[in-house]
Write a structure and sequence with these properties.
Layout (H helix, E strand, L loop, with lengths): L1 E6 L7 H17 L4 E3 L17 H17 L6 E10 L2 E10 L2 E4 H9 L10 E5 L2 E6 L2 H4 L9 E5 L23 H7 L2 E5 L2 E4 L2 E4 L3 E3 L5 E4 L6 E6 L19 H19 L4 E5 L4 H14 L4 E7 L6 H21 L2 E6 L3 H4 L9 H20 L1 E3 L5 H6 L1 H6 L15 H14 L10 H17 L5 H12 L3 H13 L14 H13 L1 H4 L37 H35 L3 H8 L1 H26 L6 H12 L8
Parallel strand pairs: 1-2, 2-3, 7-8, 8-9, 15-16, 15-18, 16-17
Antiparallel strand pairs: 1-14, 3-4, 4-5, 6-7, 9-12, 10-11, 12-13
Helix pairs in contact: 1-2, 6-7, 6-13, 14-15, 16-17, 19-20, 20-21, 21-22
């Protein structure tokens, strides 16, 4: 059997265009002799379609488009396996559509109907035959691979997880050299084909890198990363075929993969907006300068417009020198990138606002006016806006980013990358070509930008001047790496206050960072689209916007959970049950003692452990004697004297019973 993997990038939800592209790929695969063509999962609805899958006409168009593809490729002799997220009983799940002989076969739904188990929670692999080979569609390696039936020849793994810079497995073939996928294929004794998507689908980014691996865990063919490709490979079960060595496979390098993933996201986002150009503000700092380089890599220099603003709040010779240096840095960057630079000057902000006295909030007004300038240039150039906010901005000061026009932007590529990580991205990009001014790729530039972020964050807590001053003093003592390290542990890894790396040296500073992150939740809701490249983006980490609780630590106490409280409750109920049983037992023994005519001393002795033990022993002997007498009576024998004496002695101890 010949297998074809169509690593294609299409606009999310373009059903007609995607179906036409799949049909074209099927024709190319048929010319190469392929028997089965596979398409990526997120082409139609993405991996987070929300309520789109519940919309009846969307499902109608999806099924109709696939039916058209099935009819178009019927004469080619090639089957198509097209996965898509659909809704079964109002629950989204991934269906595997097999297009064969002009028909559309939803394999997983058909299996549920035949077995009568119409449960989307049953994630059994869909298995079918193609050209004499047994093929299984797999969506979860850990759960589906052990369930493969005997005789399966090849498992086609459809990657669903988007790119995660801290998980090499999300990079498909680039993760093989680090030990991923090999063990799965060799342990199950089947060929493994990974169908990896490529491109951006809303916040999710895929890097491509589809591959085919034989049943011994060796890669025999792969597609390039970050590019479209049609991979065709012969699957020969039990036959040794030429394979690639580990040094021939792509290797994962975090900064390179983050950069390329963000480039794909910018390109696809701008194209999805219906425009070809992008406009961005150039501030002479690291984030805006690096964003300009990323936009040029994604769109080309002719499609990038930079907007620079000459600041009017310059009063001293030192400030004038700094402003000249900043503008020179901006002009140098624009020249290095060969992009168009538009310069704007504000003038007197008080005149802009028609004020009779100088504006005391000139900084806030300047940011807002700069945003208007940028929006006007973008409108004039028919370009979409890009924002240079980082994940540090989104955590501590998203309101300031919104004031600078982030809410009007179509994309914020660095919104899931911390400020201190931008330095490493910049140094990687500088190794490709030295287009960034050296002054922006320094620790001083990072510290200056971090100080500005903290200043904006503290301004949002200006209700109590004394408290604000204390916050400023504490945060000023922290290094940028300490701040981003605490935020990364809290946001990305869900660590509590005591588990933050900053807590040991500055517990108050760590608590303030968590409080600022909590307060900024409402403003984060208005941020533009942010590609997710970390283990946990702010799009996934959503807290109540009106939350009044902040993590202030446990003050040395042991952590408590609901399970711990429940266990304590169970122990308490059990202890109450034992006490209740003891009380009831005492009442019953007291009642029996009164009936038997026992004195209080005898009752107390009877209720003691020694008394109860003796009573159990006497009852055992009494039971044994009674059983012996009954057996003798049934046999027509007269009980011996010892048994009669023992039985009578027991009876005489209890005056209540008749001795007749």
């Amino acid at each position: 059997m010949k297998l074809a993997l169509a690593q294609i990038d299409m606009r999310l939800g373009d059903i007609e265009g995607t179906c036409a592209r799949i049909a074209d790929q099927a024709e190319l695969a048929a010319r190469a002799g392929a028997n089965l063509l596979c398409a990526p999962v997120p082409l139609f609805g993405g991996m987070q379609p929300t309520t789109l899958v519940d919309y009846p006409n969307y499902e109608n168009d999806l099924v109709g488009g696939l039916a058209d593809v099935a009819r178009r490729v019927e004469h080619l002799g090639v089957d198509c396996l097209v996965p898509a997220v659909v809704a079964i009983e109002q629950t989204p799940f991934v269906e595997a559509f097999l297009l064969r002989e002009g028909r559309v076969l939803p394999l997983r739904t058909m299996f549920s109907l035949r077995t009568g188990r119409f449960d989307v929670g049953v994630w059994e692999p869909a298995v079918f035959d193609v050209a004499g080979s047994r093929v299984a569609a797999v969506f979860d390696l850990e759960r589906d691979m052990p369930q493969l039936p005997r005789g399966c020849d090849v498992a086609i793994y459809f990657q669903m997880s988007g790119f995660n810079a801290y998980n090499e497995e999300t990079c498909a073939v680039a993760g093989v050299a680090d030990g991923h996928f090999t063990e799965v294929a060799s342990q199950n004794g089947v060929w493994l084909a990974c169908m990896a998507p490529v491109g951006a689908f809303d916040e999710t980014v895929y890097t491509g890198g589809s591959f085919v691996m034989d049943d011994s865990g060796r890669v025999v063919a792969y597609s390039p990363c970050f590019e479209e490709d049609l991979l065709i490979q012969e699957v020969s079960r039990g036959v040794i075929v030429p394979a690639l060595d580990a040094h021939e496979l792509p290797r994962f390098f975090r900064e390179e993969w983050i950069w390329e993933a963000l480039r794909l996201h910018v390109r696809d986002t701008v194209q999805a907006s219906g425009r070809a150009r992008a406009a961005l503000a150039l501030e002479g700092d690291l984030p805006s300068s690096l964003l300009a380089v990323l936009a040029v890599d994604a769109l080309g220099p002719r499609n990038v417009v930079g907007v620079a603003f000459e600041r009017s709040d310059v009063f001293t010779p030192q400030q004038e020198a700094q402003e000249r240096e900043r503008m020179e840095c901006v002009r140098q960057l624009a020249a290095n990138l060969n992009i168009r630079l538009v310069e704007r000057s504000q003038g007197d902000i008080s005149r802009w606002m028609d004020r009779d006295v100088p504006a005391r909030d000139a900084g806030r007004l300047r940011i807002g006016i700069d945003a208007l300038y940028l929006a006007d240039v973008a409108h004039e150039m028919d370009a979409c806006m890009l924002s240079s906010l980082t994940k540090t901005d989104a955590a501590l000061a998203p309101a300031a980013a919104l004031s600078s026009g982030a809410s009007l932007a179509a994309d914020a590529p660095f919104g899931d990358v911390y400020l201190t990580s931008l330095e490493f991205l910049a140094r990687y990009r500088m190794r490709v070509s030295s287009v960034l001014p050296p002054s922006v790729v320094t620790l001083e530039a990072v510290a200056e930008r971090m100080g500005l972020i903290l200043a904006h964050a503290i301004m949002s807590c200006r209700e109590d001047p004394v408290y604000t001053e204390r916050m400023a003093q504490l945060l000023a003592t922290l290094e940028p790496t300490q701040i981003d390290g605490a935020l990364e542990a809290h946001v990305d890894r869900n660590r509590v206050l005591e588990e933050l790396p900053l807590y040991k040296t500055s517990p108050e500073g760590a608590a303030i960072l968590l409080m600022l992150t909590r307060r900024a939740e409402m403003a984060r809701r208005a941020l533009p689209m942010i590609p997710a490249v970390s283990p946990r983006s702010f799009g996934e980490r959503i807290w109540p916007a009106m939350l009044g609780w902040s993590d202030l630590g446990r003050h040395g106490e042991e952590p408590r959970t609901v399970v711990d409280v429940a266990r304590e409750g169970v122990k308490h109920v059990e202890s109450l049950g034992e006490a209740h049983s003891e009380r009831v037992r005492g009442e019953i023994l007291g009642l029996l003692g009164n009936l038997l005519g026992l004195s209080p001393e005898q009752q107390e002795e009877l209720m003691s452990e020694e008394g109860q033990q003796r009573m159990r022993e006497n009852m055992e002997r009494f039971e044994s004697s009674l059983r012996s007498m009954l057996n003798s009576a049934s046999d027509g024998q007269v009980p011996d004297a010892d048994a009669q004496q023992a039985f009578g002695s027991h009876i005489r101890q209890y005056p209540f019973f008749s001795q007749n």
